[in-house]
Amino acid sequence: xxxxxxxxxxxxxxxxxxxxxxxxxxxxxxxxxxxxxxxxxxxxxxxxxxxxxxxxxxxxxxxxxxxxxxxxxxxxxxxxxxxxxxxxxxxxxxxxxxxxxxxxxxxxxxxxxxxxxxxxxxxxxxxxxxxxxxxxxxxxxxxxxxxxxxxxxxxxxxxxxxxxxxxxxxxxxxxxxxxxxxxxxxxxxxxxxxxxxxxxxxxxxxxxxxxxxxxxxxxxxxxxxxxxxxxxxxxxxxxxxxxxxxxxxxxxxxxxxxxxxxxxxxxxxxxxxxxxxxxxxxxxxxxxxxxxxxxxxxxxxxxxxxxxxxxxxxxxxxxxxxxxxxxxxxxxxxxxxxxxxxxxxxxxxxxxxxxxxxxxxxxxxxxxxxxxxxxxxxxxxxxxxxxxxxxxxxxxxxxxxxxxxxxxxxxxxxxxxxxxxxxxxxxxxxxxxxxxxxxxxxxxxxxxxxxxxxxxxxxxxxxxxxxxxxxxxxxxxx
Length: 478
Hints:
Layout: H1 2-17, H2 19-62, H3 69-75, E1 77-80, E2 100-103, H4 115-118, H5 130-146, H6 151-156, H7 158-164, H8 169-201, H9 209-238, H10 242-271, H11 277-291, H12 300-312, H13 325-361, H14 367-378, H15 383-411, H16 428-432, H17 443-449, H18 451-474
Antiparallel strand pairs: 1-2
Helix pairs in contact: 1-8, 2-5, 2-8, 3-15, 5-8, 5-9, 5-10, 8-9, 8-18, 9-10, 9-14, 9-18, 10-13, 11-13, 13-15, 14-18
């Protein structure tokens, strides 16, 4: 341990004294401040705007006068998706998924108004977030700081002196990896501080799950940084000179951080093509028409339904029913259309899951992919978080439509000549229906969804020590 401390301390002192580190760290601090500022500004401005829109939609809903409940079902409402506080750390898919859904009877709409839809083509080059700095830029910096940690000692003959004094390759590799890891913490420190500051500014409760999410991310990042440091030092130990070491590390970074993630996404889309929005909507509409049109009283399916209802209630016309048959028919039509939509959506989601499964399994080959998926999920900005919002919006839409149909069944008469019941009901029924409130997935649910990536990162962490052992066995002093 004394040898490890001495070598790690020497590595730290040598690196910190270099003018290159001072310049790199200054640029790093500026990027961290910029990413933190833009992330916080985007989060606060977007949530303030969406909250206002949700309130406006609610006021518009409650401002409706007395009317027929089915007209209210078609008047509809809106569901707006609020950004998760941890999305300040990782934007994930937030800029590409919609954040507003129009909720109406008999029709399921997808989320619209994504940031990408209103931006220029510059968005495809990526956004500077704290997560991007740590996952993409910091490994490159660590590779640059550690590429000559041992290879330079080979070139100047220092390595042979260390070995002759009793220090083995395992000790030398571990010590340099530890020194580089401590440097990585120096780079992580400002990111941790600004993230805590961001969460504190959002006035979250003391037991907020966001702090738990950020704590889990920190532990995973420490394991990831250790792996990066071990790779940098081990490649340096296996290389004959510093130039060769640097080229190898740059190739590894380019392959794992840039090429492989993009390539696997393209492969997933090619192997499991998903239908476009128009194709999906047409398929849903076709399935619904095959079942029956609830707005058509002469539709074969609903004609059979009407005859069975009349027979069950021992009457010969819908005007003699004790409830409004139109509302009953609308309720049945809504149930059938919702089942058709849910079936089609499950098929679509399964296709997306098949696409994503390729990159999920690739986490065992590329730790960059595993870290990206886990951090995005814990930041509430991945596809599953978006799917959670879509499911909540559809549940709310279905309950709204069915509530209006049941109000029609209960309070509306079966004909204009039916004076026992009116054709409109009071607006107090609109105000009694609750507003839409977006919720977030629990931490336990997120971790369960990312179990495969968690196992991959843990396995990579364990393999880092195995890599040290085999590198020490293969490394040479010259």
